[in-house]
Amino acid sequence: MEIYATLIAITESGLRLSVPLIFACLAGLWSERSGVVDIGLEGKMLAAAFAAAAAASATNSAVIGLAAGIIASVGFALIHGFAAISQRGNQIVSGVAINMLAAGLTALVGNAWYAQGGRTPPLEGDARFQPLTWPGTESIDQIPVIGPLYAHILSGHSALAYCALIATILSGFVLARTRFGLRLRAVGENPAAVDTAGVSVTKLRYAAVIIAGVLCGFGGAYLSLGQAAGFLTNMTAGKGFIALAALIFAKWRAWPAFWTCLLFGLLDAVAIRLQGVVVPGIGQIPVQAIQALPYLMTVVLLAGFIGKAIPPKASGLPYVKER
Prior knowledge:
globular, 2 strands, mainly alpha, ABC transporter involved in vitamin B12 uptake, BtuC
């Protein structure tokens, strides 16, 4: 039972750690399915995390913090959209600029406002999204095997964690079964054909970029209002790039992206669990090696197990309307 309890604890931690990855990966899915490469997932989540924590600290409301995070993320998304869609700029350069701008602004403004090295004040109570406890958790938890699954895997997560599952369901359905989703995917494959049919390529790509901004807003808000109790400088710690790797590994599909993000979350949870472990004949594993494990696994999975991943044909290519 001790091994089972350890597995439950790792799975519970992995689920929580995978939530921002899921939101960022779905954001990349929407953007890249429309043909707009989004390297700026990291920056948008970081901006959202800061705006959410700052607004929640000022109003003592997690909901207002979430709204502020979404607004900040969408604002950065529109900057990327303007550069990549309207001005037909290099989408990679624009995304990198978004990351650098967000990292600099959050640290500068955070230090100017709070004078705590870029941090926001600690958040408590209604300023954070608290874990939701399902009915009968305490009594069901006593049941062997099934109880811990219900009490710690299904129950006990914040509302934003369940929103990640809802976002996956909606993204998979809309992109595969609705007119809007099919047109958006067509824009990522052959924008000229969509334009010939009388559908605005620009509007569809802007819609995809805005949806990506909203999803990154959820992911960033989760980091500062759900997973942590405030904003820390560069608290995204490469999660946007891991989400991009997960998106490629999932070959730009919603449900494979969801499961891949869960895998990366579990790897992160295992890495945290291994800190301080002593290996016979080697000694204690260095913390740096443990922290690098999820990123090492990202490279290994992409290099050795992904197979041939073919992105949307018009991905990264600005569309110029034919006269």
